[in-house]
Amino acid sequence: MHLPVAKPLQQILDKYQEVFKPPEGLPPKRQYDHVIPLVTRARPISIRPYMVAPQLKDKLEEHVAELLKTRMIRHNN
Fold first, then answer.
1. Is residue 15 situated within a structural domain?
2. Integer Cα distance of 60 and 71 in angstroms
3. Assign residue 21 a region: left if phi > 0, alpha if psi is -120 to 50, beta otherwise?
4. φ, ψ at 44 (rounded to 5°)
5. Distance CA 8, CA 12 (A)
6. Is 15 helix (H, G, I), strand (E, B) or coil?
7. At the top level of its lineage, which domain of life is listed (predicted)?
8. Domain containing 72: what range?
């Protein structure tokens, strides 16, 4: 999803495209990986999903598909 940015910021992003390019996959393994400790027998909070404006739904689905493809996220059952 691309959002409009101020002209000076866009100039910096254009000048340093290699630094700010989107990731193509997961980061490499490191000596210390981030861990989120899980609570035994914890249950997920049950809330309704956020409503998405119809004009943003297609872009959101494209973004989710790309994240799934690059394995940045995965399906949850």
1. no
2. 16
3. beta
4. -65, 150
5. 7
6. helix
7. Eukaryota
8. 51-76
Domain count, the chain: 1
Rounded CA gap, 77 and 64, in Å? 16
Structure-block tokens of residue 21: 């390019």
Considering the domain boundaries, does residue 3 fall inside one? no
Per-residue pLDDT of 7-49, as tens digits, reads 888 898 889 888 877 777 777 788 888 888 989 998 888 888 8
Q: Is the pTM of this model over 0.85?
A: no
- Residue 33 has, within 13 A of its CA and on its CB side, a CA count of 8
SS3 category, 5: coil
Q: How far apart are CA 13 and CA 5, in angstroms?
A: 10
Question: Which stretch of DSSP H or E encloses residue 57?
Answer: helix 54-69
H or E element that contains 11: helix 7-15
